[in-house]
Write a structure and sequence with these properties.
Length: 125
C-alpha cells in the first residue's frame, strides 16, 4: 500500500503547561491544534503564531498529514514511517486522530524527511 502524505503550511509549536491549567483560548484559535491532558501535564500543539511569550514550548515544527481516513485495523503505519525517518536521524513527534496520523518534524529537517519518504515509496505533496 502506497501512502500519501501532505505537508501542512503552518509552523507549529509543541507547548507544555502545568496539569492544573485550563486550556487557554490561544490554543484553539486555528484550524489545526491538538490538546492532551494527563496527570503530569497539559500539552498543546498549535501554530507558533498563536503562542504567547513566556510559554514553555519547542518551536519550529512542520506537520506531514498521512492522508486518510485510515482504518483502525491497519497495522504499523506510524512504525514504518518513524523507522524510515529514524534511520536517517530524523526525530519525530507523532499525533493521531480518529481518521489519520500526523508526523511532525523540525522545519530544518523537513526537506530531508520528504526526500527520505519519497525514496522509500511514499508520495508527499
Amino acid at each position: 500500500m502506497s501512502l500519501t502524505l501532505t505537508i501542512l503550511p503552518e509552523l507549529l509549536s509543541i507547548c507544555r503547561l502545568a496539569p492544573e491549567k485550563k486550556i487557554p483560548s490561544w490554543a484553539v484559535e486555528s484550524n489545526f491544534f491538538s490538546i492532551t491532558k494527563t496527570i503530569d501535564e497539559l500539552s498543546i500543539v498549535c501554530p507558533t503564531k498563536f503562542v504567547p511569550s513566556g510559554i514553555q514550548c519547542d518551536n519550529d515544527w512542520r506537520a506531514l498529514k498521512i492522508e486518510g481516513p485510515l482504518d483502525f485495523s491497519l497495522i504499523g503505519i506510524l512504525s514504518a514511517i518513524s523507522t524510515v525517518l529514524a534511520r536517517e536521524g530524523i526525530s519525530i513527534f507523532a499525533l493521531s486522530t480518529f481518521d489519520t496520523d500526523y508526523i511532525l518534524v523540525k522545519k530544518e529537517q523537513l526537506k530531508k524527511a520528504v526526500d527520505t519518504l519519497k525514496r522509500n515509496g511514499y508520495i508527499v505533496n
